[in-house]
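Long-time lurker, first post. I've been practising inverse folding by hand and with some scripts of my own, and I keep getting stuck on stretches where the C-alpha cells seem ambiguous. Below is the full C-alpha cell string for one chain I'm working on. Before anyone asks, I'm not after the true native sequence, just a reasonable design that respects the backbone. If someone could post their per-position residues I'd love to compare against what I wrote down in my notebook.
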C-alpha cells in the first residue's frame, strides 16, 4: 500500500529492524530504549534485540524499579528513567575553543559535525518537552546553534503509551499520552504488530519501505483503547495552577516543603525541560589554548543565584519556590507554554518522594 501522512497502517514487529537499518543508511544514529544499569535508559540501538523486550517499570514517589512482564512487549514500560534532553541539550557542550595569536587570540572553527539523531520510542510527553525546549533555545536573535544543529534534522518515531506509570500526570497537562503532530512516524504496539502512521513526508517515505498493510477497524479501535487506558492516571495537576502560584509567593507551605526538600537537584536533572546552565573556561598550563564549556546547573544550587555579595536564594524554601513557580507559572509568561509536561520523573527520582502535584494542591488549598 502507499503511505500517506495521517493514514493508518499495520506492520509486523520484525519490520522495526528494517526501520532501524533504513535510518542508519540515511546517516542517523538511532536512539531508543534499552535495559541497562538497573533501569530502562535511552541509548544507541542497532536492532530490536537492543530494545527492552519483556520489561516494564514500577514508579512511585522516590521509587523506581524495572519489572518483568508476562509478555515480550518492546515498549511495555511507562517511560525511561531519563528523557531525551541529554541528546539535544547535553550535560556538557563545548561552545568554542581559542588559541593564542600574538598579543591576542584566535577563535578556532569547530570542525566537528553534530550527530544526526533518530529517536525511536519517544513518548508524547517527551515530544512535548522538545517543543518546550525549542521555544527556550529559539529566543529571537539568540537562536542556540548547538541545540538546533541536532534538533532541526532529528527524526522522531513516537510510540504511544499503553499504560500510565505511577507518577505520570501528562493527561492533565495536555501533553500525552498521545500526540497529533511533531513526529515523523507514530506507532502503537499491538502484540506482534504495530499500528503506524506517518506524520511527515520523510516519515511516509520510510513507512512505504516497511511493507505496510491497511489497518482494520479492529486495529484502530485497539489503538484508541490503549490511549484511553493510558489516560487513567492517579495524579493530576490542579487547574489554574499558574495564576494560583503567582499569588502565593509568601505562602507558609514553602517552609513546610523546605523541611523535606534536600535541594539535591535530582528533579532538575531528570526534568526534560529544565535548561539552567553555567559556563566554565579552561586553559592549558601555558595559557596558549582555551575552551569554553557549557554545563548543566540547577536552581537548587546555592551558587546558581550567587551575585556580588552573596546568594539571592540562600534558603531551601526560596530555591524550591523558584523551581516550581518558574515551572508552572512564570514559564508561561516567559515562553507562552508551561514548563511541565507531566512526565512525573521529578516525583520518581526525588529521594524523599516530594510530589509536584501534591505540593501544588497544598498551595492552592
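-- Answer (accepted) --
I ran through it position by position. Result:
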Amino acid at each position: 500500500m502507499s503511505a500517506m501522512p495521517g493514514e493508518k497502517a499495520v506492520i509486523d514487529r520484525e519490520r522495526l529492524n528494517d526501520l532501524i537499518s533504513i535510518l542508519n543508511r540515511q546517516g542517523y544514529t538511532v536512539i531508543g530504549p534499552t535495559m541497562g544499569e538497573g533501569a530502562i535508559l535511552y541509548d544507541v540501538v542497532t536492532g530490536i534485540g537492543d530494545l527492552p523486550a519483556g520489561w516494564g517499570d514500577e514508579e512511585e514517589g522516590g521509587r523506581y524499579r524495572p519489572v518483568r512482564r508476562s509478555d515480550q512487549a518492546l515498549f511495555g514500560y511507562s517511560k525511561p528513567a531519563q528523557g531525551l534532553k541529554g541528546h539535544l541539550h547535553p550535560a556538557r557542550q563545548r561552545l568554542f575553543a581559542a588559541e593564542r595569536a600574538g598579543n591576542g587570540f584566535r577563535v578556532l572553527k569547530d570542525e566537528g559535525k553534530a550527530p544526526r539523531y533518530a529517536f525511536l520510542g519517544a513518548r508524547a510527553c517527551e515530544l512535548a518537552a522538545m517543543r518546550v525546549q525549542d521555544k527556550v533555545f529559539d529566543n529571537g536573535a539568540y537562536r542556540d546553534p548547538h541545540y538546533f544543529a541536532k534538533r532541526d534534522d532529528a527524526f522522531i518515531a513516537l510510540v504511544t503509551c499503553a499504560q500510565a506509570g505511577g507518577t505520570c500526570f501528562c493527561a492533565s497537562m495536555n501533553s500525552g499520552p498521545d500526540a497529533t503532530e511533531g513526529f515523523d512516524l507514530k506507532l502503537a504496539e499491538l502484540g506482534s504488530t504495530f499500528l503506524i502512521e506517518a506524520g511527515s513526508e520523510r516519515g511516509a517515505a520510510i513507512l512505504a519501505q516497511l511493507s505496510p498493510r491497511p489497518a482494520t477497524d479492529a486495529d484502530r479501535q485497539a489503538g484508541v483503547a490503549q490511549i484511553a487506558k493510558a489516560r487513567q492516571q492517579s495524579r493530576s495537576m490542579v487547574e489554574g495552577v499558574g495564576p494560583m502560584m503567582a499569588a502565593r509567593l509568601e505562602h507558609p507551605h514553602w517552609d513546610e516543603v523546605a523541611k523535606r526538600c534536600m535541594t539535591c537537584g535530582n528533579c532538575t536533572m531528570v526534568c526534560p525541560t529544565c535548561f539552567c546552565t553555567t559556563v566554565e573556561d579552561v586553559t592549558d598550563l601555558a595559557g596558549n589554548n582555551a575552551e569554553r564549556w557549557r554545563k548543566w546547573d540547577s536552581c537548587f544550587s546555592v551558587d546558581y543565584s550567587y551575585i556580588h555579595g552573596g546568594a539571592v536564594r540562600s534558603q531551601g524554601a526560596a530555591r524550591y519556590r523558584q523551581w516550581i513557580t518558574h515551572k508552572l507559572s512564570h514559564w508561561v509568561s516567559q515562553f507562552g507554554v508551561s514548563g511541565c509536561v507531566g512526565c512525573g520523573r521529578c516525583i520518581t527520582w526525588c529521594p524523599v518522594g516530594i510530589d509536584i502535584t501534591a505540593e501544588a494542591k497544598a498551595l492552592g488549598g
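A couple of notes from the structure itself: The chain has two domains: 8-101+112-230, 241-364. The mean pLDDT is 94. Happy to go over any region you disagree with.
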